[in-house]
Structures are given as structure tokens and as C-alpha cells.
């Protein structure tokens, strides 16, 4: 986050805030940032400068140091307003106001541009023949009989062929200029059916053997074999075969010899492939039979395996035939730098003798090969042996360089020519593509002091062997594409694509003229881009710019040059955008006011949000809460919130309020470090409550509901029966079936309130902390109201102070009152009796001073007292036992000494047990602490619970089916509490392991203004029962039975049962109710705020039995999470 124009890292785990180091070296304002998780680096953009670079800076998070970017930042006075990452890439889009970079020379690049070659490589048949034609010279042709034998080396349709006389069979022969490995022979039969060849054989020399051949049978188009009697089909037979097999254009072909030979069949010629290619110096075609009167052969062509180019260029020229329009593989060789070559012996090699003072790296010979198709090749250099010309002592080495068809260097090798016998060297094995120029091999001399003088150099041939060709290039309407080098300058105008991985020594042009870098060219000069909205399909650019596609905002489709116009309404420029691409918010600023609109790109519709503010819109940010998306429209010192899901401005309600300045959206990853979290964070507060009520809410088995009553304040309550309870506030009300009935027609309090109430028999016992008027009757301190007779009686003695707790004395049938008060001669603890028309002090306990906050008659003649008091012996303490027989208070010093302070409340965990002991579990709370006694051992339970800045209002023990503190019991507290990991809460439950939030209250959406004042158990109070006329066991504390089990044994077994729950009060809530005899139903869980040092956490994955704490949880899921609802 950016605070006072400085970057800070906020750790959500430990709530720490750390400023980035060395930031004093940065000047200017930060306007954007992005965190690259792979590089562990921040990018900060804005009107900033660092180390003579401008606009942007990198911060290495691990090394804690600032870095300039490798392209030198941007031009002076530049600003980077937006930094986003391209989807599926590490590249960044940097947008703002700039027109160049710091190292401007990086914008001058050399590109390989792809262009289409318009020259077609097709022959007349539409098939490129991958076999190289072997030249046959007329002087090397002979025939045993017949005429026109030399004419058939250049077959032309309609011309006369080699014609034999009637009844003759003959042999046609040709000698080759050099040894070759033929791949196939192509024969042209006579144009006349009456003089056509029927069968033939091929004989090669020096092997002097009949060759095994393969061919295509026109009848079934299958590849077949022959040797001594190979069929040569007539034109009509071939045409009929094509017709029967539905072959168009009278052409058919197959690949053979491991796809290194194309064998063709047409109505003009037929190819016969050599099954076992061997080296051949000469060959013969021997006619074995013919159709009609005599035999005639119209043409002969021989093709070799792979491609060969000879140093003697005369061997590369081919026949002196007029072009037939077919494709021929073109090869050529020529001398380099005028080097003079002579013809050698057999094999057609060349040689040269070069004096040592004339040896130059520029001299040598070059070989050019126009490869027919792309594919994988092996390039070989053949070198004749030195033994055949006795040159072994005069030879040396040559430098051989191979270039591809685009001029790129493929290999460079030194080749030694001192071999005694003929050899070949592999120059390269790999892919070769057809391109704009031939594949070129240059053999050059090597300037070496160890060269013999003169240096004897030889050159024979280069051979390209086919390994795996791109067969799709052999046929169809194929056009070739090639690259050419083009010098170009990249122009920038407000947008730039940065790829950190490109800035290595191995990449010549780290900045490319990408589609993104070209976007600036559609803007007028001086464009400013304020924000970029991006996903995998498109980009929205917003700012202050003009273009033919729109001003201020436009869209662009990824991987294309398709731009689309977006209606920006009446804005002159767009300062902010937010949202998905199909629907987003546009914020702009006119001369009078700031404005925001919703734009739906799928319909092209604008909707005015009616946001009018004299301050500019400085920020648009979003967050998700309870399934709805909200957008914060920020100004310099205020904000407005839009419910983006509902497409309307948000306004606070009674139960839902937000005050949000900005947010960190989980949909944006630029602010997250090290890991992705599916969470929205906001700066501000959010309060979301489930229920609105006026001070009181009732939770019963029927669910949670507010009590229909209007009063300013409630302070106490009492259970009457299963249909009624009483609540004290501005009057004393009877509540029945959610309807309220005031007990008194005239009810006046003189700075007085009801502190506590109980119901006993038919009487509602009411304790006031002063005087009051009820139905014109003056009340002082304590009153009995009989619900059956409506009789009201009160004390006839002066009362002052406050009664903290009322309970029933089973011995005297009196009401025991404790607190900080005095009435007559009695104080602190009194037993009250009643006559027909008044109350009186039936028994007093002498010499007790201080405050007693809680009391319980727990065993024969024993009342447990808790507070801050002293006895007649002036023993001071927080806890003691009043012995009604001995009429004295014994202070439990061992207990008191372990407590942090005065007791405000205590509860026996097994509260319904009649004869309790001091070794029973007793939960004790003070204003700022809670814990329990197990025997005389005190254990604090404040771990995870913070009450140091608040207070505990009330304590209760409830039944539970969940993990429990002891025997299906949990502890419930109310007050001003805080729980670790959750923040402030109004009530909390302890289940034996941890404290869990239970309910929240607020007044006008302010939690700090509300308080859960009391818990009222809607069940009869427990009264000790016993036969006081029978012999009574000793009542001294030391004689009370002691349990042999400890807390671990008591809490290890959890059983199912009912749960006692807490109501949920809102608005001006001060009172919670608990209903049921020994049980209640929980109807809600916490959905409120959590504050982390100024940051508001929304929807964090903080679960309670797999339920998010920010969501409403069904009651049964809290009561019994193991039971699945149907």
C-alpha cells in the first residue's frame, strides 16, 4: 500500500506494516504499482525519477534494493499511470504519458519480416519432383538397332522416338558423366498404339545386372514389382485405368523408397523406381516385346537419389533440352575470388595448386542448391582420395561453411583433405527450409603457416540426402513465405510492452514492434493513458487521447488489430475504469463535477450513476461481500459506494452500513505477495447485522425474534412461567407471545433503575437502586408485586445503595439480597421477609462491609458469596461462605489470593445439583477476568480473550452438544469483549478449548455504543431444597465433601444434548434473553466486522465448523455440526 507517497508492505498474518527500504532515493509521486511473484520484485510507476531514469522503478523485494529498468525508464517528465500483466505471460503493459525510453537506441531494431514469395514452384502436373534429373548427353547415347536413338533424351509429345524396324528387338544405352545412385527411370511410350513397347528390362553397369523395379499398375493403382519383363502401358490403357478408378487430370503418384522417391503415372509417361539403388556408370533399356507392327520408345529420363552438386559445373547443367514446364532442381558451382580450377581424373573432381604466398581465406569454391521442399536433410561433402593423383604430401585443410536459404549460418567446419581414399564429411544434419535464395556451401582456403607450398586443393561434390521431407509441399497450390531483414524504429505514445526475459545477451532486439507497442500509433501525439483494463480476450484503454476509434476510451481485441469504440458519454477524458470487460465503470471529470457511469460493452449501453461531487474521482476499487460486488468511488477525502451487483449506489440501512475509503480486490493480483488469496480487503469498516430490534430480542425454540416493545432502556428481567417473563425498563413489562403489557399505570423513576429481579411463588421481587413511584406508591430499594392479587408492598425503612443479586433462602423462606447497600441496621447482606402490607429485614448479618455481587445457597446452611468485602474479623477477600447456623462469614483466603480482583459473578457448573460442594467446578468472573476453581485450584481462561480495555457484564453456564467445557456445558459471557483473531464482540462462548464469538450488538451501526447488559434465563431459578428439621451434616467449609476427580476427568467425555443460546440485539440493544428450561437454541453466528489496525477484513476464510464466520449459519449447524439437514 502507498501511504504518504511511500510504499509499505502489510502482513495480514501478523498485522505488521513495514516500509520499503532506501525509498529516500526516489523523487516524485507514485501512481501505480505491480508485484511480480516470479521475480520477487515490485514495479512502481508514476511521475517518479531514480538514478537518472524516469517514470518507473523496480524494487527487488528479497535483496531490498531499488533498480533501474534495463531499458532506462522513460523520457524525462514521463508518467506511468497503469501497470498490468499480460494474461498467460510475464510481460507487462506500462501505460501513461511518454513518447520514448531512456536507452532510445533500443527502439532501433532489425526485424525478420515474413513476406510471401509469389513465384510458384509447381510443374505442369502440380507435383514437385523431389528427385534430381541426371544429365544424359547425346554423344553418350547408342542403340543396337533402330533410328533416332539420341532424340529421346529430350522427350517431346508428337516427335518421333527411337524406332525399330518391323520384327526387331533392340537395346538403347547411355553412359553417364559421373557415377550416380539412380532413384527412378521415366519412360515415354510411343504415341501410336500400333508401335508401342509392351515389355522391357533395365540393365546397369558396372554391375551388369537386371534391376528390380517398382511401378504403378493403372488397373488397380497398386504398387507392383518387375525385373526381366517390366510392362510399359499404352496411353489408352492408362487413360482407361484412370477413368475406372475415378482419377482426374490423368495423373497419379505414390511415395516409395522411404518417401525419398515420388513414383508418377500419367497418360504420357510412367516412372519405374529402383528397388535397390546402386552406383551406376551406364545403363541400358532392352525392349523385350511390343504391340503392333514394330516398337518405338518416345523418351528416357533418369533421376538420382537426393541432390548432388559437382565442383565441375558442366556436370550440373543437365540436358540441352527445351523446357517442358516441369520443375527441375537447380544446382550450381562457381569459383570464389577468381581461383583457377582444373579438371581431375575419374569422378569429375577439380583441383588447384596454390602457391603459399597466394593462399587467401577468400579463395575457394561455392556450391548452390535450390532445395525442392523443406524438411530434414543431411549435407555431405565428398573428397577424392590423394592416392589416385599422388598428392598426399601437398594437401592441407579447407574451411567449409553452410548457409541456409535465408542467408543464415548453419555450420562451419575444418575439413582435412589428406585422406588417401575417397571420403565424405557430414557438414550438417537438420532442418532446411525453402527460402529466398539457394542453400549455399562455401569451401575456402585456410591461411596456415603449416600449409605445403604449393598447396594442393581438391573439390568434388556436395550431396544432400533426404531424411524427412515436408511432403505437404510436394503437391497442391503451395506458396512459399520467407523472411527478410528490415530496419525499423519503434514509436511510443503512452503505451509500452515490457518483457524482462528479453533483456539478455542472447537476444539482439529485446524490444519488439509488438501489437501493444503499435497501439500508440493510432493516437494523436501526446496521448495520456490513465488506466488499462485487461483480460485474456481484450483490453480497455482509458485516458486523455484522440483517435479515429474514439477519444478518451477505446477497446482492443487481443491478438488482432481490431479496435472498437466505446461511448464515454459527456466526458472529455476518462480518469478511471473498473470492472470486467463486459460491464465496467467509467469515471471522468467535466468542468463542473465528477461523474461515473456503468457501461455494458455487450449492449453498448451507458447508465449514469448520478454520482455528483465537486471533488475529482481519484480512485475506483472493488470488493466482494456476501456474494455482492461493490465499487468504491473515492475522492480526495471522501468516498461513495456502488452496489455493482444491483447497479445502484449503496446507502446505509438499519442493519447494514459501510464506510470504505478504498479496497484491495482479490480479482487484482498486483498487490499480493508470494501467494494468491481469494479475499477482498478494504480500508474502512463494514457492519452487517441479521436483525433489527429495540433493546431486546428473544431466542426460543421457535427461532430468533425481536420483542415488540418500545422503551428507552432495559436493565433486568425475570422468568415467570413458560408463557411469560418480566422486563424492567421505563416500566416493568410482562412479555407474552411477543406482546408486552406494562404492569403499572404510573411508573416514575427518580434517577433510579431496577438492578435485579426474581420471581418467587406469586411475587415478582424487584430491587431498585433508589426510590421510585409505582401506581402512586412510593418505593424504596425493594418491592414485592403479587401477580395474582396485584398487591404491591415495599420496605418501611430507609434504603440506600444498590442490591446486586437476589436469591431465595430455603430455611427462612426469605429473600436474600446482597450488594452495596444499607437498610435500617442491615447492610451488604440481608434477609427480607414480608408482612401483609410491608417488607422488613428478617435477618441481618453483622459486621460485613464492602460489596457482595453474587450469592448462592449451595448446601445446608451455606451461602457462597462473591465480591469485594470484609467480615467481622476484618478479614478481606473476594470469596467467602456465610454459615447461617453459626451466623458468621468465613473468608476463603486460599481462593481469594489466587484471583486477579473482585468477583462480579460466579456459577456452579452443575447448577441444578442440590447438595453442592466447594470442590465442585465453580466458574468465576470479574470485571476483567474469567476462570474456574477446581477444588481450591484456580485456572484462568483469559487466553485468547481480551477484556483489558472492556469489561464482562454477565456470566452464564449453558448446555451444549458441541465440544464442551465440562459435561456438555459451555461458558457464556457478555460485555465489551475482544477475541484473538476476531476482534471486538458482545458475547463469547468457551467450549473447553477456545473462545468463539457469539453475538454482536450495535447502536446506529456503532458497536462501541452498544452493550449486552444482561442475560435473563427464561427458566425457574434454582432453589436449594432440604429437610431442615432432620439431622443436618456439618456445614463448615472444611467438612464439605471433596470430589476425587479432577478437571481433566470431568471434561474428557462429550455427549449430545440441547444447547443454550443467546439472542441477538441490534439498534440500541442492551439486553439479551435466553429461553427454555435448561436449554436454548442458537439461531445465528457472527457476521460482523473485524478490524486489523485500520484494515477491514471481508470474507476471509476463517471458518467455524466449515462455515464462513461472515455468513449466516443455520442454528442446527452450530448446535450439532455433525447432523446433516435434509
Automatic annotation (TrEMBL):
What is the organism of origin for this protein? Pichia kudriavzevii
Q: Which residues form the signal peptide?
A: none
- What's in the GO CC field? cellular bud neck; cellular bud scar; plasma membrane of growing cell tip
Classification via InterPro entries: Rax2-like_C, Rax2-like_second, Rax2-like_third
Membrane keyword on record: yes
Q: What is this protein called?
A: Bud site selection protein RAX2
Q: Locate the Rax2-like third domain: which residues?
A: 309-465
Q: Where is the Rax2-like second domain?
A: 139-297
Annotated transmembrane regions: 1059-1084
Q: Name its GO BP terms in alphabetical order.
A: cellular bud site selection
Q: Which Pfam families match?
A: Rax2, Rax2_2, Rax2_3
Q: Which residues form a coiled coil?
A: none
Q: Where is the Rax2-like C-terminal domain?
A: 783-1003
Q: Which key words are in the record?
A: Membrane, Transmembrane, Transmembrane helix
Amino acid at each position: 500500500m502507498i501511504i504518504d507517497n511511500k510504499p509499505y508492505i502489510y502482513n495480514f498474518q501478523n498485522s505488521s506494516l513495514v516500509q520499503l527500504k532506501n525509498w529516500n532515493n526516489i523523487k516524485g509521486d507514485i501512481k501505480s504499482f505491480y508485484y511480480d511473484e516470479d521475480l520477487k520484485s515490485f514495479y512502481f510507476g508514476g511521475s517518479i525519477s531514480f538514478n537518472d531514469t524516469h517514470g518507473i522503478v523496480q524494487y527487488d523485494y528479497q535483496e531490498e534494493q531499488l533498480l533501474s529498468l534495463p531499458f532506462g525508464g522513460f523520457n524525462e517528465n514521463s508518467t506511468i499511470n497503469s501497470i498490468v500483466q499480460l494474461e498467460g505471460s510475464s510481460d507487462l503493459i506500462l501505460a501513461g504519458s511518454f513518447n520514448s525510453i531512456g536507452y532510445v537506441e533500443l527502439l532501433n531494431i532489425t526485424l525478420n519480416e515474413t513476406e510471401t514469395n509469389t513465384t510458384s514452384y509447381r510443374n505442369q502436373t502440380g507435383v514437385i519432383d523431389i528427385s534430381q534429373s541426371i544429365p544424359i548427353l547425346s554423344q553418350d547415347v547408342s542403340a543396337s538397332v533402330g533410328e533416332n536413338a539420341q532424340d529421346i533424351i529430350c522427350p517431346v509429345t508428337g516427335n518421333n522416338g527411337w524406332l525399330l524396324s518391323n520384327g526387331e528387338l533392340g537395346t538403347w544405352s547411355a553412359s553417364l558423366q559421373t557415377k550416380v545412385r539412380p532413384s527412378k527411370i521415366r519412360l515415354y511410350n510411343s504415341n501410336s498404339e500400333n508401335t508401342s513397347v509392351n515389355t522391357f528390362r533395365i540393365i546397369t553397369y558396372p554391375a551388369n545386372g537386371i534391376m528390380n523395379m517398382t511401378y504403378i499398375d493403372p488397373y488397380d493403382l497398386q504398387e507392383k514389382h518387375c525385373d526381366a519383363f517390366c510392362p510399359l502401358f499404352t496411353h489408352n490403357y492408362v487413360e482407361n485405368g484412370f477413368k475406372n478408378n475415378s482419377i482426374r487430370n490423368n495423373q497419379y503418384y505414390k511415395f516409395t523408397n522411404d518417401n525419398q522417391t515420388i513414383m508418377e503415372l500419367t497418360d504420357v509417361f510412367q516412372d519405374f523406381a529402383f528397388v535397390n539403388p546402386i552406383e551406376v556408370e551406364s545403363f541400358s533399356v532392352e525392349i523385350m516385346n511390343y504391340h503392333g507392327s514394330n516398337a518405338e520408345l518416345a523418351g528416357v529420363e533418369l533421376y538420382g537419389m537426393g541432390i548432388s552438386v559437382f565442383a565441375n559445373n558442366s556436370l550440373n547443367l543437365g540436358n540441352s533440352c527445351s523446357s517442358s514446364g516441369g520443375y527441375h532442381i537447380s544446382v550450381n558451382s562457381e569459383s570464389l575470388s577468381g581461383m583457377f580450377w582444373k579438371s581431375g581424373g575419374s569422378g569429375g573432381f577439380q583441383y588447384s595448386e596454390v602457391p603459399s604466398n597466394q593462399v587467401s581465406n577468400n579463395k575457394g569454391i561455392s556450391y548452390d542448391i535450390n532445395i525442392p521442399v523443406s524438411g530434414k536433410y543431411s549435407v555431405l561433402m565428398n573428397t577424392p582420395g590423394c592416392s589416385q593423383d599422388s598428392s598426399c604430401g601437398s594437401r592441407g585443410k579447407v574451411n567449409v561453411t553452410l548457409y541456409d536459404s535465408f542467408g543464415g549460418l548453419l555450420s562451419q567446419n575444418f575439413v582435412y583433405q589428406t585422406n588417401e581414399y575417397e571420403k565424405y564429411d557430414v557438414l550438417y544434419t537438420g532442418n532446411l527450409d525453402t527460402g529466398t535464395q539457394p542453400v549455399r556451401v562455401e569451401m575456402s582456403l585456410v591461411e596456415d603457416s603449416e600449409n605445403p607450398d604449393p598447396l594442393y586443393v581438391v573439390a568434388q561434390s556436395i550431396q544432400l540426402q533426404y531424411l524427412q521431407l515436408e511432403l505437404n509441399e510436394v503437391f497442391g497450390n503451395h506458396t512459399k513465405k520467407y523472411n527478410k531483414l528490415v530496419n525499423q524504429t519503434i514509436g511510443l505514445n503512452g503505451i509500452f510492452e515490457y518483457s524482462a526475459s528479453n533483456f539478455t545477451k542472447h537476444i539482439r532486439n529485446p524490444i519488439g514492434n509488438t501489437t501493444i507497442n503499435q497501439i500508440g500509433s493510432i493516437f494523436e501525439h501526446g496521448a495520456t493513458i490513465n488506466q488499462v483494463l485487461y483480460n485474456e480476450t481484450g483490453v480497455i484503454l482509458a485516458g486523455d487521447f484522440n483517435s479515429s476509434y474514439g477519444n478518451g476510451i477505446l477497446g482492443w481485441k487481443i491478438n488482432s488489430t481490431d479496435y472498437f469504440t466505446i461511448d464515454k458519454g459527456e466526458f472529455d477524458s476518462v480518469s478511471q475504469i473498473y470492472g470486467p470487460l463486459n460491464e465496467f465503470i467509467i469515471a471522468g471529470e467535466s468542468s463542473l463535477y465528477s461523474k461515473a457511469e456503468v457501461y455494458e460493452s455487450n449492449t453498448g449501453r451507458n447508465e449514469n450513476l448520478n454520482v455528483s461531487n465537486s471533488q475529482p474521482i481519484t480512485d475506483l476499487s472493488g470488493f466482494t461481500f456476501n456474494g455482492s460486488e461493490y465499487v468504491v468511488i473515492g475522492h480526495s477525502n471522501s468516498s461513495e459506494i456502488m452496489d455493482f451487483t444491483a447497479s445502484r449506489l449503496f446507502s446505509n440501512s438499519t442493519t447494514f452500513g459501510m464506510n470504505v475509503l478504498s479496497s484491495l480486490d482479490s480479482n487484482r493480483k498486483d498487490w499480493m505477495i508470494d501467494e494468491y488469496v481469494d479475499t477482498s480487503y478494504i480500508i474502512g469498516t463494514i457492519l452487517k447485522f441479521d436483525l433489527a430490534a429495540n433493546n431486546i430480542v428473544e431466542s426460543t425454540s421457535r427461532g430468533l425474534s425481536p420483542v415488540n416493545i418500545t422503551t428507552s432502556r432495559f436493565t433486568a428481567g425475570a422468568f415467570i412461567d413458560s408463557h411469560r417473563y418480566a422486563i424492567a425498563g421505563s416500566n416493568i413489562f410482562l412479555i407474552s407471545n411477543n406482546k408486552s403489557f406494562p404492569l403499572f399505570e404510573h411508573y416514575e423513576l427518580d434517577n433510579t433503575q431496577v438492578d435485579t429481579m426474581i420471581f418467587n411463588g406469586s411475587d415478582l421481587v424487584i430491587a431498585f437502586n433508589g426510590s421510585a413511584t409505582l401506581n402512586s406508591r412510593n418505593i424504596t430499594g425493594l418491592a414485592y408485586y403479587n401477580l395474582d392479587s396485584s398487591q404491591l408492598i415495599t420496605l418501611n425503612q430507609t434504603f440506600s445503595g444498590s442490591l446486586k443479586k437476589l436469591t431465595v433462602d430455603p430455611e427462612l423462606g426469605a429473600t436474600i439480597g446482597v450488594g452495596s447497600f444499607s437498610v435500617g441496621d442491615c447492610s451488604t447482606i440481608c434477609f427480607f421477609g414480608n408482612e401483609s402490607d410491608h417488607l422488613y429485614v428478617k435477618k441481618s448479618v453483622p459486621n460485613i462491609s464492602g460489596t457482595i455481587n453474587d450469592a448462592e445457597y449451595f448446601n445446608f446452611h451455606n451461602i457462597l458469596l462473591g465480591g469485594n468485602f470484609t467480615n467481622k474479623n476484618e478479614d478481606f477477600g473476594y470469596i467467602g461462605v456465610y454459615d447461617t447456623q453459626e451466623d458468621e462469614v468465613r473468608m476463603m483466603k486460599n481462593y481469594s489470593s489466587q484471583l486477579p480482583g473482585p468477583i462480579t459473578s460466579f456459577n456452579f457448573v452443575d447448577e441444578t445439583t442440590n447438595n453442592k460442594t466447594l470442590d465442585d467446578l465453580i466458574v468465576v468472573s470479574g470485571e476483567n477476568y474469567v476462570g474456574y476453581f477446581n477444588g481450591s485450584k484456580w485456572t484462568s481462561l483469559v487466553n485468547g480473550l481480551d477484556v483489558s480495555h472492556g469489561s464482562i457484564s454477565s456470566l452464564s453456564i449453558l448446555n451444549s452438544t458441541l465440544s464442551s467445557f465440562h459435561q456438555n456445558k459451555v461458558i457464556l459471557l457478555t460485555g465489551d469483549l475482544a477475541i484473538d483473531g476476531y476482534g471486538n464482540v458482545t458475547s463469547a462462548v468457551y467450549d473447553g478449548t477456545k473462545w468463539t464469538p457469539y453475538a454482536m450488538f450495535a447502536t446506529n451501526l456503532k458497536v462501541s455504543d452498544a452493550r449486552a447488559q444482561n442475560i435473563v434465563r427464561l427458566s425457574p431459578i434454582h432453589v436449594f431444597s432440604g429437610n431442615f428439621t432432620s439431622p443436618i451434616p456439618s456445614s463448615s467449609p472444611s467438612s464439605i465433601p471433596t470430589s476425587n476427580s479432577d478437571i481433566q476427568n470431568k471434561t474428557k467425555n462429550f455427549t449430545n444434548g440441547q444447547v443454550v443460546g443467546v439472542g441477538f440485539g441490534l439498534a440500541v440493544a442492551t439486553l439479551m434473553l435466553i429461553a427454555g428450561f435448561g436449554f436454548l437454541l442458537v439461531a445465528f453466528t457472527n457476521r460482523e466486522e473485524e478490524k486489523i489496525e485500520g484494515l477491514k477484513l471481508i470474507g476471509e476464510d476463517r471458518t467455524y465448523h466449515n462455515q464462513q464466520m461472515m455468513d449466516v449459519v443455520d442454528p442446527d449447524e452450530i448446535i450439532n455440526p455433525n447432523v446433516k439437514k435434509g
